[in-house]
Amino acid sequence: MARNTFDVDEELETPFNLKHLKRLTVYVRPYKKKMMLTVLIMLIASGANLIGPFIIKHAIDQEIPDKSISGLMLLSGIFLAALVLSGICMKWRIRMMAEIGQSIIQNIRKDLFSHLQSLSFSFYDSRPHGKILVRVVNYVNSLSDLLSNGLIQLITDLFSLAVIFGFMLAIDVKLTLLTMGGFPVLATVIFFIKTAQRKAWQTLSNKQSNMNAYIHESISGMKVTQAFTREQENKRIFHRVSTGYKQSWLKAMYVQFLLWPSIENISVLTVSVIYVFGIAWIGHGVTVGALIAFIGYIWMFWTPLANIGNFYNAIINAMAYLERIFEMMDEQPAVKDNPDGKVLKTIKGKVEFESVDFGYGEKEQVLKNIQLKAEPGETIALVGATGSGKTTIVSLISRFYDCTQGKIKIDGTDIQGVTLPSLRKQMGVMLQDPFIFSGTIMENIRYGRLDATDEEVIEAARAVQAHEFISGLQHGYYTEVNERGTRLSTGQRQLISFARALLADPKILILDEATSSIDTETELALQKGLERLLAGRTSFVIAHRLSTIQNADRILYIDDGRIVEEGTHEELIEKKGWYWKLCNAQRLPSEAG
Amino acid sequence: MHSLRWIWGNMRPYRKRLALGLLLVLAVAGMNLINPYVAGKIVDRVIYGHQNGLLWQLLVIMIGSTLIRTGVRYGYQMLFENLSQNVIFSMREKLYDHLNQLEPGFYDRTKTGDIMARMTSDLEAVRHFTAWTIYMVVENLSILLFALCFMFYIHPPLAMAMLAVTPIIGFFAYRLTKDVRPTFSAIRNQFARLNSVVQENISGNRVVKAFAKEEYEIEKFSAENKAFKEKNLMSSRVWGKYLPILDSLAGVLTVIMTFAGGIMVIRGSLSIGELVTFNSLIWALNNPMRLAGWLINDIQRFIASAEKVEELLVTEPQIKSIIDEREVQTSTTILEFDHVDFSYEDGPVLCDITFEAHAGQTIGIIGPTGAGKSTLVNLLGRFYEVDDGEIRVDGINIKDWNIHQLREKMAMVMQDIFLFSDTIEGNIAYGNPDAPMEAVYAAAKQAEASRFIESLPDGYDTVVGERGVGLSGGQKQRIALARALLRDPSLLILDDTTSSVDMETEFKIQETLRSILKDKTCFIIAHRISSVKDADLILVMHEGCIIERGKHADLMERKGYYWHVYNNQLGNFERTPLGEEVI
To answer: What beta strand segments (E) does A142-210 contain?
Structure first.
């Protein structure tokens, strides 16, 4: 899959259809009862509100001409009571709507996030992280109003529309039909606006995503930018990206805001037509009173209609986000957890590769026919030039990627046949690029095993020689570090992430350049502790420093995706092959003389 | 109030357009009264009065005024959209520019998710205010005032009576303003936290998977997600409390009108016709007051976000550059550290560092993890400020340099390699976007990267993921090295650049470096003796101090730390049977 960058719009593969809306109902359904209740509350409220005009009419027509102050007081009393009632209803409506809307949002976001957890590396590797972030957080947020306010408003509007329509029909069928004449015009206008608006919002959401991705990456890579004094160039790019966003925003607004004036003008035109015909028909089946009442309703008729139009607007806008959200939810993990997979029982640590091939894409073959067998407790070192495939080999053991050919077995069980968590929980992996979460050092180490006690954490830190520097910090293990662990040196980060891997107490330990940035002194001390720690664990060690690898039980020399040599340090030295050459290179040229 | 003044400062350049927009708002507010008026006339004159000839006239007025009104309204809505986009656009550029000026110390303290929240949702809240809230407030206020004036004109005592509720409305509006603000701040802060959790989860996805901690991550996320909902509900409870009161109070206006007006009519001080007119205007009082609560919410939301945006904008860069570039005589003493002390907040890192480097020299730095080696480099690029002492480049204190000019002299390969999600070519040319392809190829060749790049299916056009995922550590390091070499700097700084590169390749890289670094100064931080052995000056650092210095031979003679490390790295190996055979 081609990687996406900040300035490339993401193509959307699925066309617009009602499927998305239908899918949305899954989230709405659990709150059906609450929504019905809210609609009911709103109906009561609008009933209470309808009393107002009625009371005024009554006062002006009856009580005032009758000079009845007590009647006036009574009416006012009823009116006040109605206001209180509508106030209470409103309070509940606000609460319920917030509750419903926020719950739906919470659920969508949770599902999205959980799904994200099941996606494989390749998903994260193939697009800027800012684009993922914006979907989980910002896009979901923008649905909230639509789902709470919008939906309930729609239901009540439809309801009042039906009521008003009923009244209109009751008054005069001919005039009602005439009123309907405005509908096809409205439908046509809405259709055109919709088409343009939908396109505009799709573009907009793309541009927004691009801009956020660029901001995100700029923040992450700021130090490089400053070191290479590229601020001006980045500003230019940002200007371009930001302009793209602004323009697409305005374009969307130009279209979107057309809806209201259209509805209003069509409504006025329709009313005018009613006036003309209504007045002409007076005496021919239309009474004066009926006409006035009818016109009163016709004005009322357009308000909910305009609201519905607005809702439609909102749906179309939200659709641009919704599609992206669902698209991400539909993203299939490249490494699928086997639902019928067995739970891998506590393993001994035997690892076998049976003629494993692997390639990232169609074109790129990375590993070719890897045969490998590691007995429990063995330490296997992988050496070879950068990019030869060492990291890939160890990544396959944790099933970060699936091999394209062949089989990988742990304790004789094919790893494709077991559940992912049960597999990965038994491995301790120290990745090449140590990642530190924001939080304390204690929390970061404990990430390896969440129920570890403080003592166990400290124990692990001691084992990897990290205890000394950690206790040297002002707040010791409770020192706050952040995301990229900026305050810590790379070597220190490696030690922390090493401790994390050890704490997991894995049967299989994978150290991918675990010590590349650690000084030799620390490393030596580390190795003494390690020998004890590695006992009983199968470990795979990738390193360039000879001192790190020469004590391994077996050394594999990897070149261009193949194992070209295999044996102990001594055996390979004897052989005078690849490894021997490597050892020579390690020696200092001047030393050689 | 502060935030309002701040946004006004940002809108000032557009004040003419703003004035025009508000004028149009006023006009439309006035025109709103036309249709009800015309409709009333049709009923009075045409239907009851049978003046059928007037119908066409009145209808033309109605249609015409609607067309004009909706047209003008669309016009000013677009005007406000435009205006707000301009305001936000320049604000966003200012923010971005500002982010570029803030020093790494700021990024150490601030979570990416938090900055993202400010750049996205907070800016959105500010946008909403400038695009919508402002004209809505003015529109409703003017409708209210029009109606009030009209009412006072017709019958002052009744108008006064209706104003009687306004203090109560004012009181509750004030309470709402006060109570709702903290809830909006809480929402936006929680949003930033939510953003950070998701952001970290995405960045750290490899660790999450490696430790199969998906469940834990979901738990962590759910807590924040739930808190976000709670904060929103809390806020809605506050408006749930006040908005109905405001709404009902607006309704009370109608009650007062009916009751007081009714009594006045009965007493004879008001005509029934006047009461009807009042009634037809009551919506113009009701609606704005009903909306008041919502608008207050909008304004408070705006303030909560505006404060955050502004806070970011006024964060002073701790490291300030002098503006002017200066004439610099290249000196042979290209770099001096003069009794430099440095500490982070949580303790001292470097103490009394003194050394100098001459043009063409290579300085090697070696020492245990956390000894302050990388910090030294950070100080050199003026990413952090020294506490004491001076660093001089070409004889001039780096504080007196224009920071860009200073950094353009040097090129760094940092320990924590960051590549951008761009093509490999784009990454190598990051510091020189206009560099010709040949130069990029040459730099890649010098960094021993060309072979593996060319073996990729898309070669130099291969897009690497953010942070360079998809490449091995050694490949990333070599691309970063090529990026630095392309700068053709007079000071090259390599911080642990070849730690993940295999020995053979490292050896080749060193050969190349030696040939191209003839007149350049080079800093090499490394753990492998082989990387620093040939340096003109080797500094051995330990706990922030230089404990040994000299050439390889001197240090070997001293039999100190360096000698120790040397033996550990190579001595061991020499005892292998291979010893004599390696010539």
So the answer is: none
